[in-house]
Amino acid sequence: NAGVTQTPKFRVLKTGQSMTLLCAQDMNHEYMYWYRQDPGMGLRLIHYSVGEGTTAKGEVPDGYNVSRLKKQNFLLGLESAAPSQTSVYFCASSYPIAGEVFFGPGTRLTVL
Amino acid sequence: ELKVEQNPLFLSMQEGKNYTIYCNYSTTSDRLYWYRQDPGKSLESLFVLLSNGAVKQEGRLMASLDTKARLSTLHITAAVHDLSATYFCAVERYGGATNKLIFGTGTLLAVQP
Question: In Å, how far is B70's CA from the nearest CA of chain A?
Fold first, then answer.
C-alpha cells in the first residue's frame, strides 16, 4: 500500500495564479483532510471531507476550495494564489472514529 | 474554542537524560495524539490516547493522558540523538466524529551527544 500520496511535492507560483493539489489514499478511508503548516504555528485544518461528495470548512478555509469526487481522492484548489499561502500542505486520511490519522508526505508551495 | 498549548517550545538535552514535554488543551476532548516530525518530512504517528489515565510506551517514549486536568505528557527516558525531531500533540474536538485535529505548536527537541 502506498498510503497517502500527494502531488506535486514542490511548486512555485506567481501571485494570482491558480493550481490544484492532489491527494490520494489507498486505505479505503472515509475521512480526508487538508492541513497547512507554517513555522511556529503547528498544523491548521483548511478543509475536510467525511465521504465522497462531501466537504466542509476547517479552521482556515479562506482562499481555498476542495472537491471529493472519488472516495480515494481529495483535491485542494487555490484560485488566485497569494504570498500568504506560501506554506507546506499536508493531506491526511482516517477511518471514522478509528483513532489514527495518516499523513501524506507534504507539498511545499511558494507564492511569489 | 479548543486551544492546544505545548511546552517547552524548544528543548535541548544531553544524551542519557530524562525530560517531559507537556500538552495542555482548553476544552473536553475525545482523543489525544502525539506525532513526530523530522525536518522536511511528514508526520509520524507515535501514540493515540483514548481515555483518561491512558498510558502508552514505545522504546524511550511514554505518553500519558489526564482528561480531568486536560493534560498529556510525553516522557523521554535516557535520550539518544536519534530522538531529535519536532514533537506535536494534537487534540480531537469533543463530540466530533471526524478526527479533526487541533495541533499544538510543536516542541523542537535537540539531543546533544
Answer: 18
